[in-house]
């Protein structure tokens, strides 16, 4: 039986505001991933600070927090084959949509570096940490 792996994605407030959540989730489903959990949630400042802790002190930190907390985001855990986090990251495209390849989520849908539609865990350890932060009942022991 094939090993399954879960990772976290966040359809950021700009994606929710622009009505892009269905398009984003459909891309993952078409790629063979399964939605384990999804919740529309207003992310509070404390949770956002824990989520973006590795960026504290960087020039863009305050704008990250302001963006992710400004209105509801769709938090989702998707499951797929081993390496799912890598597939998600590839499908997302580079952080800067001006450099993201056509066919990627950011290349097709994002409008700026800040308004870049989606977050995805950047590795298996990040996925575990982020799933535990937003969905503690799904966290693996």
Quantity of strands, as a count: 4
Shape: globular
Mean pLDDT: 95
Structural class: alpha+beta
CATH topology: Alpha-Beta Plaits
Low-confidence blocks of residues:
none
Put simply, the count of helices is 7
Percent helix, as a range, is 25-40%
What is the CATH superfamily label? Nucleoside diphosphate kinase-like domain
Gyration radius (Cα, Å) is 14 Å
Major sheet summary line: 4 strands, antiparallel
The main sheet orders its strands as 2-3-1-4
Keywords:
141 residues; alpha+beta; Alpha-Beta Plaits; 20% strand; globular
What does this structure look like?
With 141 residues, this protein is α+β, with helices and mostly antiparallel strands. It has one domain (4-41, 72-138): Nucleoside diphosphate kinase-like domain (Alpha-Beta Plaits). The chain has helices at 13-17, 21-30, 45-51, 61-69, 84-92, 105-109, 124-134; strands at 4-11, 34-41, 73-81, 118-120. It has a 4-stranded antiparallel sheet, sandwiched between helices. The chain is globular and about 40 Å long. The two termini are 21 Å apart.
